[in-house]
Structures are given as C-alpha cells and as structure tokens.
Amino acid sequence: MPRTSTTIGNSHLVIETGRATPDATTIVERKGLGHPDTLADHLAERLSRAYSHYTVRHFGAVLHHNFDKLALLGGASEVRYGAGGMTSPVRVLVNGRAAPICGGERIPVQEIVEAEVGAFFAERLPEVSNHLDITFNITSNSSPGAVLTGDGVPDRTRWFNPRSIDDLRERRVRLSNDTSLGTGWAPENPFESFVRELVDHFSGESDFTLAHAWCGSDVKLMGYWDGDRADVVLCVPQKSRHVASRAEYVRNSESVLAECHRLAALRMSGAETRFRLNARDVPEKDELYLTYTGSSIESGDEGVVGRGNRVNGLITPLRPMNLEGANGKNPVYHVGKLYNIAAQRLASRLHEATAGHAEVHLVSTTGQRLDEPWRILVRLSAPDTEVDKVQALVSEILTEFPALTDELVSDGIVLS
Asked: With 80 as the cut, is the pLDDT of residue 145 above it?
C-alpha cells in the first residue's frame, strides 16, 4: 500500500492510497428528530447560534461560549387511548459557559436561553412546551492557565469578560481550543442513505407524517446489511390522542410497515429487506409504543449532547468515528465541531476527485493554529491518486475555517 508523508505549512500530512474499499457489511443507526439525544443535540446548537447571533449583532464578534454539555431529563406522562397528558415536566439542564458581559454591557444570557428553549420545544414537541423546568448551570469561568503574578491581570481571565472584542485573541489568530480530532468518510453506501431517508421520512415533515397525525417523531433505526439482505429494527411511536383503540394502533403499525416496504422497493431494489417494528410491543397486554407527545422524553428517558448521530447524521461503528459531541460547541475555534465538519467535507471532495472511497482524520494540538492541524491522515482506495491533487484539496479545506464559522452562525449547516 503506497504511503506518502509530506507537510502543508506546519501540518504533517500522510496520504495512503490503494487501500481496500470497505466491506459491504454495514451496521448503521440513526436517531430521529424527536429522540431525546437528538433533541439535546439540536437544542444545544440552537443556543450556540442564538448567543452568537446576539453577540455578533451587538459587539461585532462571536464571544466565548459553549453549550455542548446540555442534558434533558425526562418528565412523566399518562397515556390512554384517545387521550393523555404530562404529569411532570421535562427538565432542561443548560450546562456550559458564556460571557455575560462585554465592555461593561450586559449580555442577557438567561433571557436568550429561556426564549430559545421555549421556541425550540414549541416547534419540535409542542405538547411539552408548557411543561418545562429549566435549570441554569452556566458559568463564566476561564480554562486553566491564568496564573496570578503580582498586580497583573492574566489575559485568560478576560476570555469571558472582555473589555472589548479586541481582547479576543482569535480575532488575531485562531488557535485550537483542544487536542482532539475530526473524522470523515465518503461515500455512503445505498443502505446508509436508505436509513437516513427512512428515519427522516417518519420523524420529520413528510407526506406520510402530514397525512397521519398519530405518527410521533421519536424514531430510531438500527440496521444490518451484508450487501444482499438488509435487516431493520425500527421504532416509530404513535400519539395517544390520535389513537382510539388497540386495534387502531395495530392498523397504524401496519401502515408504517407498508410504507417501509414501499420505500425499500424504491431505494434498495434487488436487496431483500426485512423490517421489525416496535419490537417491545405486546399488544394483548396493551404494552405499546404509544405516547402523548410522540417522544420518550415525556416519560423518564434522558437526552445528552454527543450520544446521538455523528456530524454526518449517522452512527456507523464499522466506519471510522470519534466521540466528539459537536453540537453547542463554539463555532470559532472548537475543533470538536470544526474539524469534524471539515474532515467530512474533505472526504466528500476526495471521493469526487478520485471516484473511490476516502477517509480523513484531522488531529489538533491545543493552542496551535486552527488551520495547521498537528496530523492529517488521508486514506484512499484509488491506487494512482496524484499527491499534488490531494495536497491541493487539503490546503483548500484548511483555508475555509473563517467561512465555516460564518456558515455555522448563519444557520447554514445542520449537524446530525
């Protein structure tokens, strides 16, 4: 297997070509829009963007913050055929840090968070929006490194209390906030793409969900494919007030399965695809995936940032992955967000350029320039790829970090 080592600026680049194309065997998971982990991910990212919008509008820059440790603690509900309700609120633990002041001007962090949490649940799970208990665990403590000597004030102590945006060192040079990595690969195989489409079809706004008000959004899919046959375990909840009886629940479930087979015939043509829906159901005992809100967050389940879909929207244990929770991280210099997005984009461009499989790993060192990763590993299945072409694509992606921040702040990128 040919292997080339070179440098781009201060980054060490390794290019491996002629690697074996990934085996057809695929295990893939996706969590839908109403899954508690997806809710936590998307809410954390929404808070980061709302805070960023405010500080850009008022001060001209994204101030220091991170909401990537947010958690949701499930409430309690009562479910009956044709009825139901919340009996205990969903607790929203807003964990993280945010600058509360800049140049003596107060930033209404709590008000921003409260407004965004309410709006988020009103859009995503309206039945929960009046049953929320928000706990604020937001600090403005700086990271380690502020050593006090004499009467001087260490620069680091101003990170979350800047006198002006001139105190933000990232306006001069963007440095990695952590020693971490970003991972990306391309292309998806047909089954991975099918899993993404199927979960979105049942958990988002589609012709099916618009026509069936009983369809809840806490959809989860685990799939296994060997290249010839696909096996799918799928969970699709139903909303209790739209389901009048056990028999109606069963009929609705049959509609879901019929829709699964219809989409499989379109997207997985030639492959045998078997489905198992709501595997824990015991209809004769009325133990069913019947919910008031359409999400298990109503009844004790929890959601935590980083436990759901990766940046590419899938959970793929047989593919390269990392454990970074990208949502809610600062979009200016947090490598756990920026390097994952950049690695995925670079892998896609390398796939387009080589017509083969591409895998990318970007590894950072804390305190070093963001656009000069410590290590860059590129793995390609194409045997005769020109090194210069790969270097050019790598250099191109490294120049895009300022623009990537702008995309994130302006809602131009949807994570997971």
From this structure: no
6-39 residue pLDDT tens: 999 999 999 999 999 999 999 999 999 999 999 9
- Name the burial class of residue 111, with classes exposed (0-12), middle (13-18) and buried (19+) by CB atoms within 10 angstroms of its CB: exposed
117: phi then psi, degrees, rounded to nearest 5:
-60, -45
Q: Are 308 and 41 in contact, with CB atoms under 8 Å apart? A: yes
From residue 44, give the alpha-carbon distance in Å to each of 101, 116, 133, 218, 332.
21, 10, 16, 18, 16
Contact assessment for residue 193 and residue 312, using Cβ atoms and an 8 Å cutoff: no
Q: What is the mean pLDDT of residues 222-245?
A: 97
Structure tokens belonging to residue 195:
């899993």
Q: Name the one residue in this structure whose structure tokens are 């379109």.
A: 266
| First-residue to last-residue Cα distance in the chain | 33
Buried b (16+ CB within 10 A) or exposed e, 360-377: bbbbbbeebbbbbbbebb
Q: Kind of pairing, strands 83-88 and 181-186?
A: unpaired
Q: What is the pLDDT of residue 270?
A: 84
> Which pair of tokens denotes residue 211?
């026509």
Q: How many CB atoms lie within 10 A of CB 81?
A: 17
| Strand duo 375-380 + 11-16: pairing | parallel
Q: d(Cα 352, Cα 215) in Å, to the nearest integer? A: 38
pLDDT of 154 reads 67
Q: For residue 95, which of 311, 329, 339 has the smallest C-alpha distance?
A: 329
Q: Which two tokens stand for residue 302?
A: 């929890």
- How distant is the alpha carbon of residue 144 from its chain centre? 28
Closest CA to 96 of 133, 145, 44: 44
For the purposes of burial, counting CB atoms within 10 Å of the CB of 297, is it exposed (0-12), middle (13-18) or buried (19 or more)? Answer: buried
